[in-house]
Amino acid sequence: MASKIVTFTLNGRETEVMVKPLTTLAKALREKLGFTATKCGCYEGNCGSCTVIVNGEPVLSCILPVEEVEGQNVLTLEGITPAEGLHPLQQAFHENFAIQCGFCSPGMLMVSKALLDKNPHPTQAEVAEAISGNLCRCTGYDPIIAAVLQVAAGSNGNQGGSHE
Amino acid sequence: MAKLKGTGISSVNYPTGMNLGGDPTQALIHMTTTGTFVISLASCDLGQGLKTVLAQIGAETLGVPFENVLIDTGDTDTGPHCMGTFASRTTHRAGNAIIMAAQEARKTMLEIAADELEARPEDMETDGQGFVRVKGSPDRKIHLVNLALAGHFKYGKTVAGRGIFFKPNLGIDPETGKMDPDSTEAHACVMAEVEVDTETGEVKVLKLQSVYEIGRQVNPKLVEGQIKGGSVMGLGHALYESTEPYYPSPEHRPGGFFEYILPLAPDVPEMEIRVLEYPSADGPYGVKGFGEMTANAPIPAIVNAINNALGTEISTHPVTPEIVLQALDAKQSKS
């Protein structure tokens, strides 16, 4: 089948990408557009490392055809990372040793951001539930939950980065 | 049908490294023109923080700031030899090799400083802040950058060092069977509290209390991270993870993370961690290896807790709901 052009908003910018049908969003981001912060651990929607935010909802970009985001608003880790310094969630992950090998971190950060945007003051159980679709082999999750709760405790209502 | 609680305990002695063919790891250090000490290794950081602790060990021995040490790892084509990151050996082995290399590099560094400051090398000391100075005269000092420039462009000297950890293989005494298979040993004790649903066979780990005796801690926050991560990995091994959990035939092996079940965030129990430090005799600054044991020690504690809750004699893992229900059936048919 012929390639087609898909247009969507990526981190606040109108973006076009030409893809074969059923190309996944993760593949388009990483291989066509050079947005490599999004990681693919399993390529079958099991591990959560490919999580990006589409219209405010966390989605698994490794099993989502990019045609599905035509006209939609896609936010990746690049979109919440400021030009200088770190997003409050990134800073809290850093301070709480919530990163070891780092492979799950982009997905953990995006799913945590989606949570705090909807629920700025979650309980520990709500954080654990929110990240329960994301696998981490190194940290034992505990430091990740602590990092998210730290941001929630200091929340000023703007978790957004610059491309909301 | 009920939810039953139980408590179990485990204690573990865990060897650091192994003694096959000397178990060598090498380190090479050289100082660049900007005063950075590059430590070349083939040892690999898996995310546990090896590069951080090895840079700490290098900085401590050289007497320079942590920021002046660059760990260059992971290329076995160009790096010096390392047996590998396994057997909880790498901080111990590479750390010892780095100390040896750093002592040689430090000697040349102090010689250059002595020439520049018109003093004797034995009167030199490092301040840990980036300067080498004359003992007793803290104003007579030279910064590492100036020292590096002088070494390279004035004296034609290379600040460098070679290090190796090597443990001779002494074999087995044919009379007594005595041998020396490892280096130091770390120790752990874990207490687990679980709740078992006797209807579904599901196990929930409520609490893990861990005490680890791991020699000197190079980086306590990384130690804590290793113990927390290992505790949850051990929980997974105890309850969920098997390459052939339900079927004996290889073609039914798990093909993904929906079938090979890992612990998830809601499975994480309350964790309490204590660390004891009894420095080892042969580790760098008293270090013992403890990485792997953190995933092993929780397993028998959790299985013991399940048996304590149910009055069963399960001696296998993972203790899946199927295993729990079978054990309860076996107990009932016995009585």
Description:
Chain A folds into two domains: 73 residues, Beta-grasp domain (Ubiquitin-like (UB roll), Roll), CATH 3.10.20.30; 66 residues, Orthogonal Bundle (DNA polymerase, domain 1), CATH 1.10.150. Chain A is globular. Helices cover 32% and strands 15% of the residues of chain A. Chain A is built from six helices and five strands. Chain A has a five-stranded mixed sheet with strand order 2-1-5-3-4, sandwiched between helices. With 164 residues, chain A is an alpha+beta fold. In chain B, a hairpin with a 2-residue loop joins strand 6 and strand 7. The two termini of chain B are 17 Å apart. The mean pLDDT of chain B is 94. The interface between A and B is medium-sized, with 26 and 24 residues.
List keywords for this structure.
heterodimer; A: 164 residues; alpha+beta; Ubiquitin-like (UB roll); DNA polymerase, domain 1; 2 domains; five-stranded mixed sheet; 6 helices; globular; B: 335 residues; Aldehyde Oxidoreductase, domain 4; four-stranded mixed sheet; 7 helices; 11 strands
